[in-house]
Amino acid sequence: MTSYCILKQPLGDLLLVANETELIGLYFDGRPHVPAARGAWTFDPRHPVLREAQQQLAEFFVGKRTRFSLPLHFAGTAFQERVWREIARIPYGKTMSYSELARRAGNPRAIRAAGMNTGLNPLSIVIPCHRVIGKDGTITGYAGGLQWKRHLLNLEKQHLPVTSPTCPA
Prior knowledge:
Blueprint: E1 3-7, E2 14-18, E3 23-28, E4 42-43, H1 48-61, H2 78-88, E5 96-97, H3 98-104, H4 111-119, E6 132-133, H5 146-158
Parallel strand pairs: 1-4, 5-6
Antiparallel strand pairs: 1-2, 2-3
Helix pairs in contact: 3-4
């Protein structure tokens, strides 16, 4: 059975989706890429995976969480899965270009395909596709809209852990 809940946010609602044991989707409600199967899902905000996802997202949005520790499941082509795994490796507060993403996913010439598959990421924010930007540093395309992408990047920039400078002995 597939369950879902809605997480209300100032920039727009988030649609969280889970199977019995894993988070399988995090979408920007009302935007492209929300699966058509939504009508067959069961609304269940008390589902344990969805409750944990809501808690971790709340912590992320106030800067208390830089990594998610949720049981995840995603399925795609071999290239899509490589792209999504590479996106998941981008550290909090850092960015990567689409061309670098394509290279790390094993096909340096597939920059457009890497970009398209970034947009098809079924677990937005948790698999942080907002951290993928243009080679020249421009903020381009995002399933949630550019306002969301800018917000997430700024949020991470504001909450980067402070490191102490090292003094020479």
